Amino acid sequence: GRSMSSAPDIRFVHLRDKPEAVETLSRWFLEEWAPYYGSSGEGDLDADLAAYSASDRLPICLLALSLDDKLLGTASLKATSIGLEHAPGPWLSALLVQRAQRGRRIGSALVAAIEQEAARLGYRSVFSSTDTDASILGRRGWQPIGKTESLRGAVTVFQKNVR
Questions:
Q1: H/E run at residue 135
Q2: Which of 34, 78, 93, 117 is found 20 to 30 A from 47 (Cα to Cα)?
Q3: Can you give the pTM of this predicted structure?
Q4: Measured between alpha carbons, how far apart are the two ends of the chain, in Å?
């Protein structure tokens, strides 16, 4: 795994290389995105997590692990997302840090790892759409390029050049 200077106690692995994390991610995704993944939502949690288990093509899921192998957070790089009318992708998506671990720059380190992953795959830019705090993206130099709507309301679409 790689370590980031902002969070040296973290390493990153692909979900494909740690399939036992699927159970925890499933619980986290249900808690965080209940309107989408819950019983009345249109999301298919099992199908999404199965798709995220590839690492050589989109969608890709990265895991942030502590040095003692504890799951701290996750982020994905996907071909599509809310906001697709503004940009072709790929999309930083499903950025989630375990509640007890928030405020330790893990989210920022995950965003940096996804940026590196997009560049490694040959993409010039990466995009993200969020309806929550976008300060991580702003600190990393992402630019707002549009607005759209999601199940939860207004969403801002951001872009970051990675190459």
A1: helix 135-139
A2: 117
A3: 0.88
A4: 21
CA-only gyration radius of the chain, Å: 15
Confidence of residue 8 (pLDDT cuts 50, 70, 90): low
Between the alpha carbon of residue 97 and those of residues 1, 20, 49, 143, the distances in Å are 18, 17, 17, 22
- Please give the structure tokens belonging to residue 126: 């990466």
Distances (CA, A) of 141 to 4, 90, 101, 126, 159: 17, 17, 23, 12, 9
- Please identify which residue in the block is written with the tokens 């999601």: 150
Residue 91 confidence class, pLDDT cut points 50, 70, 90: very high
**CA-CA distance, 160 to 138, in Å (whole number)?**
10
> Does residue 140 carry a pLDDT above 90?
yes
The amino acid sitting at 35 is P
Q: How far apart are CA 116 and CA 119, in angstroms?
A: 5
Q: Which residue has the tokens 């199965």?
A: 50
Instruction: Judge whether residue 24 has pLDDT over 50.
Output: yes
